[in-house]
Design goal:
Alpha-Beta Plaits, elongated, 3 domains, 8 strands, three-stranded antiparallel beta sheet, 16% strand, alpha+beta, SH3 type barrels, five-stranded antiparallel beta sheet
Length: 303
């Protein structure tokens, strides 16, 4: 399509019935804005359904109560689930709104060009050829985009989560359709292409486990020691200062291994995400106090 062809088409349009065509063009543009407003309103209402009303809260409570591992989550976890659902709904809503806007105005532009008298067939054909060329030349970009799209829809992680991507471990600062930004413990900001992420370990979802291992002498009554460990863990669970960090689950205490000098016992507590280290430190203090009070020997004495 040459500049002369474009000028000839505009001249023909102006000579035929410029006012009627102009009115039709204006109506098409106005209709495009109206359809865009209507679609975005529908998307906004759908997002609100999953984020800001009673239905969203009921859905979050149901997910917290009937999770894959049973009713492990409390009301606080239900609120966390509701917040994550709302954030994901807003992200997806913004993405769908952008896609809808692009499609609506692209169709409107083609219709306007047709009304003006321009032959849109070469434009459509050129767009197809350009799309194919971009598809071959930007395969990694498309892979990053599609991977990011699925990550957002599946809520694999969000801003504020601590994740392990296989390439970097850190706190998520931004989730885009092409790259994810992570800040590691040294303050380094990592830009990880979404298409390069083969696996994701999310340390912020669901729950975590605090592990404390205690070596005791062979001469000790293991069942008595296990009761002491359970008592220390139960005291931590019911402590008002720590009850928000520890899930209301019974502690598990088991024999993990045996060495020539001692029997290794392990006590475990389920905690809120990212709180397992702090809980484990406090649990070690309480376990030591309980074993010291009970006169438990930590290793086998000389024979």
């Amino acid at each position: 399509m040459t500049a002369g062809t474009v000028l000839a088409s505009i001249h023909t349009w102006a000579l035929d019935d410029p006012f009627a065509v102009a009115g039709t063009v204006a109506g098409t543009v106005l209709l495009a804005f109206l359809v865009r407003w209507l679609v975005r309103r529908i998307i906004g209402r759908t997002v609100a359904t999953f984020s800001d009303n009673a239905f969203a809260r009921r859905l979050a409570r149901a997910r917290a109560t009937h999770g894959p591992h049973g009713p492990l989550h409390g009301e606080e976890s239900a609120e966390v689930i509701a917040e994550r659902t709302a954030a994901r709904a807003r992200t997806v809503g913004a993405l769908l709104g952008s896609i809808a806007t692009f499609i609506i105005f692209a169709v409107a532009a083609i219709v306007v060009l047709e009304l003006v008298g321009l032959d849109v067939t070469p434009v459509i054909a050129s767009a197809g050829v350009v799309g194919i060329a971009v598809g071959f030349g930007a395969q990694s970009l498309i892979r990053d985009f599609l991977t990011g799209l699925f990550m957002i829809f599946e809520d694999q992680y969000g801003v504020g989560d601590v994740i392990d991507t296989g390439q970097a471990i850190g706190t998520v600062e931004d989730v885009g359709l092409r790259v994810t930004k992570l800040r590691d413990e040294n303050g380094v900001l990592w830009y990880v292409p979404n298409g390069a992420i083969q696996r994701i370990g999310n340390k912020s979802q669901g729950w975590a486990v605090a592990n404390v291992e205690v070596p005791v002498a062979y001469s000790e009554d293991l069942e008595r020691v296990r009761e002491m460990l359970r008592g220390a863990a139960e005291a931590l669970t019911t402590d008002p200062e720590w009850e928000g960090d520890v899930l209301a689950e019974p502690a598990t205490c088991s024999v993990e291994s045996m060495t020539p000098d001692a029997v290794l016992l392990r006590v475990q507590l389920r905690t809120q995400p990212l709180r397992q280290n702090e809980v484990a430190r406090e649990l070690r203090v309480r376990v030591k106090d309980a074993l010291d009070a009970g006169g438990v020997a930590y290793k086998q004495g000389p024979r």
